[in-house]
Amino acid sequence: MNFIMEGGPIFMVPLLILLIVIAVLFAKGLKDNTEKNSYLINSLSLFSFVFGVLGFVIGLVSALESLSAMQGDIAPQILAGGLKVGLLSPTFGMVIFLIGKLFSIILTWKKQ
């Protein structure tokens, strides 16, 4: 759970909440498989992916702004560490997207 705080709680906590909502919708879909559950899972998983990418873009813009204000050379370790932290939210968003798609495929397969 350290990656949630490291990746920035402003974006990582809502992504975690979206993952929990998708898991609840999947459990609900296993009991009562409706088209609405599948649609909601697909929509929320896509939103998670886009929200994670938005977190990366906002973080990258602020990091580039800070780098342009710095005087002198910038250590590659600082730049690499910042990119690693910045890529945590889109990675988590992609994982949620893949889980949501897998849940949607399972619900579709179960329905037929």
From TrEMBL:
Keywords: Cell membrane, Membrane, Protein transport, Transmembrane, Transmembrane helix, Transport
Subcellular location: Cell membrane; Membrane
Main location: membrane
Membrane topology per record: Multi-pass membrane protein
Residue stretches in coiled coil: none
Membrane spanning stretches: 6-27, 39-61, 87-109
Domain MotA/TolQ/ExbB proton channel: 32-97
Recorded family membership: Belongs to the exbB/tolQ family.
Protein's name according to its UniProt entry: MotA/TolQ/ExbB proton channel family protein
